[in-house]
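Researcher: Can you fold this with zinc ion in place?
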Amino acid sequence: MAAFQGALMKVIWWLLGTAGLSVLAADLLGRQLGLGAQGGGDESIEKVALTFDDGPSPQLPALLDLLSRHGVRATFFLTGERAEGDPQAVRAMLEAGHQLESHGYTHRHALSFTPWGEARQLGWHPQPGRAGRLYRPPWGGHSPFTRLLARRAGVKVALWNAESCDWLEQDGAALARELLPTLGGGANILLHDGPDEERSARTLALLDALLPALRARGLEAVTLSELNPRPLGWGAGWKRLREMWIRPPSAS
Ligand SMILES: [Zn+2]
């Protein structure tokens, strides 16, 4: 009996260890290094992409006005819950020529789902059936199943290679000044739509400062499909990892 109990405990510890290592490996390889996920575009092209997560928010009309004023089309990663609650906003974004992609049905970390729950999370898209659909996991978070489920759902995992830090409590124009020197051709910039008036005002101020400065440097802001992002390899992954550890945690 004691021998059986000892063997059972070994199996339990082995299973727990394997599960723990799988979770750590998924986070390191999938989120922090982002290996295989879409990052930035070719550095030799003079284009950057603005990507907005978490919408549509009540502040979207002001953001659409600003983008229209600057003559810019962007990419929005929407959640299913918000998109279903505001179909008019979804229509407005499409009519303005913006690219719509998925931020999951609900804004929850991949590890909070069962595998079948994560499959449903990944299965939602604002334009189901469209070719080349993208999925940006909330906070970039990965479970050990995320990449497998994305492949099964026919979506590509899309991350970013430049962070606007528009979630920090700082002046929007100051954030733009800090961001600008880090940007070059092919940048895939993470920004947010909302979630409240204060954060939205900061993002708008950031964009009002950033967009003319980008234009002055000859960098055109385009949608992600026009940027044609490449999968992140080891070199870009290490750069991403270093920047992640010297900057505050992302609020994607
Ligand atoms: Zn998010």
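Model: Folded with zinc ion in place. Residues 31-100+160-232+239-246 form a domain with the TIM Barrel fold (CATH 3.20.20.370).
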